[in-house]
Amino acid sequence: MMMMMMIMINYTHVSFFTLAAYRDTGLLKYLYFTIVMSLYIFIICANVLLIVVICLNRSLHEPMYLFLCSLFVNELCGSTGLFPFLLVQILSDIHTVSVPFCFLQIYCLYSYINVQFCNLAVMSYDRYLAICYPLQYNKRMTSKKVAMLIAVTWLFPFFEVAFMVSLSAPLQLCGNIIHKVYCDNHSVVKLSCSDTTVNNIQGLTYTVAIIVCVVTLILYTYMKILKVCFSGCKQTRQKAVRTCTPHLASLLNFCSGGFFEVLQSRFNMNSVPNILRVFLSLYFLTCQPLFNPVMYGLKLSKIRSLCKSLIFGKM
User: Fold this and answer.
1) Nearest CA to 140 among 126, 154, 151?
2) Measured between alpha carbons, how far is 2 from 264 in angstroms, rounded to an integer?
3) What is the mean pLDDT of the chain?
4) Which terminus of the chain has a lower count of CB atoms within 10 Å, N or C?
């Protein structure tokens, strides 16, 4: 609440942002609306189905599936921060958004991205313990430790993103045009005509911290997993492939989307067609909620069989 009041006070000259990436598409906007609405409905149904399956079945009350449940809940939150906004903007003739709502969307989307990344890192740590220390797994990955890891996965990004938004909110802006279809913190900071040194230091510091902590953890765990796979028996390799393939695919998909987004934010993309720029920026935010339920639902046999039972009423 205090943050929203601060935003209202500081933006005396800019009361709204214009999203310049939208174009007049005529009657095609109804087709785009239908496509986006269908994707949103699929994301809700798929993620809710998997959350319900995990919560209702005691056999899935294991660390790996609890971390998955956290992942699916975050995808619902992130999708809700993006898709309803897109649907309204697609049908609207004036593509503007108020400053407070823009920062609210920035907070939701950046929290989603950070929670997703931390969640994937925790899941890689869980797979590392399960494959490299199978006999000590239950002792090392206790219910208390699972709860603590999930809490850190959510709380750390929430506070970090709140701090980032609190630095961007007081900036004095000399423009109000954002060249995207949704609100983006980097785009807002670029509009500032005041000193943004603190914002840049915060962004750089957080990026380095993420690389050092999260990326190092993921690389370390998978190096250990590969070492065990090459030196272990056939059964160990099969278990590693079965449980790590969905997570690794999800991780690579997320990093690819992040790479596209960094390219867009840091380099001049004026020579790239607008439709491609829009697709790349949306891919980062929509790929995971669409990709993960399908990947985990198909690859993990326990989830797959229980989903079939729930859908056909045999639970």
Assistant:
1) 126
2) 32
3) 84
4) N
